[in-house]
Amino acid sequence: TDMPRHHRHHKRRGPKSRESSTQEPESAAGEHSYLIKKSDSLGRYLVASRDLPEGAIVISEDAMVVGPAQDSLPVCLGCYSPIADLSTSYRCEKCQWPLCSNKCKGLYRRLGHSQEECEQLTTCAVSSAQLPQDQLYNAITPLRCLLLKVNQPEQWSKLTSMEAHNDVRRKLPSIWEYNQKTVVDRITQDWKITTFSPEDIHTVCGVLEVNAFAVGEDSLSIRGLYPTAFYIAHSCVPNTSHTDEEFTMKVFTSVPVAKDEMITLSYTNSLQGTKSRREHLKESKFFECECKRCKDPTELGTHVSSLRCGECGSGHLVPSEPLSHDSAWRCDNQDCHASLTAGDVDTVVSSIDKEIKSLDHNNVEELEISIRHYSGVLHRNHYLILGLKYTLSQLYGKSAGYLIHQMTEAMLERKKQVCEDILQMFDVLEPGLTRTRGLTMYELHAPIMVLTIQRFEKHKITKGDLCRSLRRVAAYLRDCCKILKFEPEKSQEGSIRKAAQDALLQLKSWEPVVGKML
């Protein structure tokens, strides 16, 4: 099981030292809950215009542009459903590009296969059928952005105000030359579209790389540009979360945000270690994160990057200078002087990462053995172990041989333990109304409920114990529903919310025994 979908973020710059920036209010945007501010170090960013409670909607807006992600597999240009076989797929009657059917809901729609796009592709010198399937879709979303220049100049103006980092990207052949080949040459040479300059096309590629969000369900490979959300700065411990449904994005506070506090999202996988997160942000968003978590050797006391000290056995190795790529790692036990070079740590972690990727992630026993094995080298909260525990939290209760009614008391206790372990980490790294916490609370309620009822029926616990445990279960389910309330109904998270609501109703049947819980 993969980590939840919100870790597939695409985005840009993050707060450096906020104190040293000269802040200039730019606009108050009516009755919005945010102000747009500007500084030399950050460019434009959002702050709260008033004290915001958790769960407050900060932004709700439609996408300007939506389209296939880079290196997308074949999809319908209208609704983005996967196309298994291009050779037999239905084709648009006019431009001959693949569609799911002639009744596609995205046909001739603004955020699907628009009339303007169809006309442009109809006049192309080379049809899609003549192009190699590899990288077939790379130029589609950039073309949709470019068509704004002709058809929606106001939206084009907004798009060109977004950061593209052409100066940085031009020096990176892996990015610039790849875009030249799969996007610029495709549009100007294969398709013979001469309306747009190569520089405009490269700029649009940069804008998408830096500012687009991954949207849609897990199975879909789609990116979208939004007119306000792109202002939100990055933090590795963000204070907002977001959902999207039918390409409308809602950004909401996951924790209370004070007036004038910067509004932040995480644009990397916050369940990775500092080195991985900072490298990803540097390579994909072209900035070095210096948030409070990145600066802290222990990552806010979680130790999600720490190694166990092989010399003293009681301490943990943490980086002396977390913001330096080649920092030495030293034992945090004051009586121990053990240290490792950054290269040594990389070798150990990369080797374990590779081994973990080769595991069967549907095999409970294999994952449990790996956790015990790697816990001798890594801190028990290390992100690689955390990932294995997250997978286990989903497998216990749902996989063959481990369905909830088949599980022994020891198995139920183990599911409860791994859920509690990861929830403890999420409480620090993704606090408040965050998807990971909501999903984990749902997983945690089940073993507590089953164990409690089994023990009560066997007279192993008192009525008071039963009451306390079921109230705890009800609290987890209520919090789960509260956290997942913005999720699309048809998404996996929407299904979990519905299951949590149903479980709350089932709990009501215990009220004659334990009193009112809801």
From TrEMBL:
Q: Where is the composition biased (Basic residues)?
A: 1-15
Ranges for the region named Disordered are 1-32
Q: What Gene3D superfamilies has UniProt attached to this entry?
A: 1.10.220.160, 6.10.140.2220, SET domain
Q: From what superkingdom does this record's organism come?
A: Eukaryota
InterPro entries per the UniProt record, alphabetical: SET_dom_sf, SET_SmydA-8
Cross-referenced SUPFAM superfamilies = SET domain
What protein is this chain from?
Uncharacterized protein
Q: Which organism is it from?
A: Cuerna arida
The lineage is:
Eukaryota, Metazoa, Ecdysozoa, Arthropoda, Hexapoda
